[in-house]
Write a structure and sequence with these properties.
mainly alpha; two-stranded parallel ribbon; TIM Barrel; globular
């Protein structure tokens, strides 16, 4: 777990723990945060990015905290998609399900329910969403060596259904600051190395997996391209 703590931009009381910072875990957000406080904070963060001259390609949430798949509070996804529709942003969710990439700890029936609802809500609010979302969880076997990690992750990335699948990594350069933030700093250094590794791109191309950006996805699906 990271050691950095953040406060919200807004004064929503349900967004913070007893130390005055945002909740440590995503399920804590789902259990405690009110819809009103969450909506105000989402809008404040997007508006701040705009005020700083940023042109994001899409909207994301942290560790699935607005999906509802931890507690079954699926209205969180609907609320977020409504806001994305108002701003004209794509959203990082999924509209199709596959047992190979069901998130660890999420009951499959709930995973399937979110899929059906996000597809309907995405259409209602005119929000571009990828087909699938892949959560690449680390395990101790992967940490034996960089080569073992690369082998494992590339097998995961090439055993995916046809369509657009989003996955994610947290690439970082080794530094004292990174080591002070998280005890899993080595994972992030290897993720950085993975995306710079020519073997990675050769392997993906050989297996007909092609990397695209959200801006390209927006073009494919008729969304707004900033």
């Amino acid at each position: 777990m990271g050691k950095y703590r953040w406060k919200p931009l807004t004064d929503g009381k349900t967004l913070i723990d007893n130390e005055g910072f945002m909740w440590h875990e995503s399920d804590d957000v789902e259990k405690n945060a009110s819809y009103a406080d969450l909506e105000a904070e989402i809008r404040a963060q997007i508006d701040l990015a705009h005020s700083m001259g940023m042109k994001p390609s899409h909207v994301d949430n942290h560790m699935g905290s607005l999906y509802g798949h931890y507690t079954g509070r699926l209205g969180l996804a609907k609320m977020t998609l409504r806001i994305c529709g108002e701003y004209g942003y794509a959203y990082r969710l999924y509209t199709k399900h596959d047992k190979r990439i069901c998130p660890n700890g999420t009951p499959y029936f709930l995973y399937s329910a979110i899929t059906l609802l996000s597809k309907a809500w995405g259409k209602k609010y005119n929000v571009v969403i990828p087909d699938y979302l892949l959560f690449p969880d680390w395990n101790d076997d992967m940490r034996e060596s960089y080569e073992k990690y690369r082998e494992t992750i590339l097998k995961i990335w090439t055993d995916i259904p046809d369509g657009v699948t989003e996955t994610f990594i947290h690439p970082a350069i080794e530094s004292d600051e990174l080591k002070g933030i998280t005890g899993r700093w080595q994972d992030r250094v290897w993720e950085y190395r993975l995306m710079k590794d020519p073997y990675t791109h050769e392997y993906l191309a050989k297996n007909d997996v092609y990397l695209i950006s959200y801006r390209e996805l927006n073009k494919m699906k008729g969304g707004i391209v900033r």
